[in-house]
Amino acid sequence: MKRYKFAVMPLLILLVCLVGCSIFNRSSLRTTSEDDSGQETPYRDMPKDGEGYIVVGFSQIGSESDWRTANTESFKSTFTAENGYYLLFKDAQQKHENQIKDIRNFILQEVDYIVLDPVVETGWDAVLMEAKDAGIPVIVVDRQVSVKDESLFTCWVGSDFRKEGRRAGKWLESYLESQERSEEEIKIVTLQGTLGATSQIGRTEGFEEVLSKHKNWKMLARESGEFTQAKGQEVMENFLADYDEIDVVISENDNMTFGAMEAIEASGKTCGPEGDIIVISFDAVKAALQFMVAGKINVDLECNPLLGPMVSEIIEKLEAGKEVGKTQYVEEQYFDTTMSLENMIKNRAY
Length: 350
Ligand code: GYE
Description:
Blueprint: H1 9-18, E1 54-60, H2 66-78, E2 85-91, H3 96-108, E3 113-116, H4 125-133, E4 138-141, E5 155-158, H5 161-178, E6 186-192, H6 198-211, E7 217-224, H7 229-242, E8 248-251, H8 254-266, E9 278-283, H9 286-293, E10 299-302, H10 308-319, E11 327-329, E12 334-336, H11 342-347
Beta-D-fucofuranose (GYE) binds near residues 65, 67, 142, 197 and 199.
């Protein structure tokens, strides 16, 4: 299944330069020794050509959240030797420059496919052009790339983040109505994800669409909590110090929500349906749904991290010479405290 690629000029020049370092010997290739953690797949273990694997290089963003852990696990459990794959997994520790380096290494390794979960949307044109020149299809997952030439990647699969944000706004609209607070001034703060990431942009802009229709909703502040619990807590502490009254916190992922909940409780306030502050969260990972059952989160907009099997299906189609859809959305729903969640949580994969 392993295909040999006809190297084009830039790659040839690069390879010629590298001959002196005997870089053709795969077993000697270990280009990122410092950041190779135990969880990553070392390049040196990659099978030789002709062993019958489809070799996939996956540049993952990092390990910033429960969602991300479930996403990584989905890829690792799908792209196994039993399924005919050899997965080169790299964790970029939330750094764009690490992802560029990883993609370049995948190209040098002549992998069959590159899977990219881009930390932010911009800055991919050059490196994706290198992949295209090398004849390696790039499948973009979760977050998107904003490139001038759409032919630089084969397809994208992930969530409709704008729809999630809009759904959050619509939920708030009907919740306030049910509480007879539609006419009240509603003070809102937002913990944003990594600025420039599709999930941040979509959730912020989707909510904004509904916000703009309500003159009595006041967005007091928006700040990035980087999608992490620690930063989410820090930013929420600042919000609480700056504003005496906060009615709603929108947190663009569950881990920032966990941090925000700690900050709220430490300030002597309470959150959730019976509390002082309405909490709107995104992802709907197990731990967050448990907090919802405990009455601390009002609503959670689901975001499905189990993208591994979908990408494998795409690769199977490409291997069979079939067309694949350029943009592929995952189905999602939302959960709130009016639903009975206990049984669903037990069987939830993430
Ligand atoms: O919501 C968050 C993660 O891009 C959908 O990234 C992903 C987001 C997810 O860190 O938890």
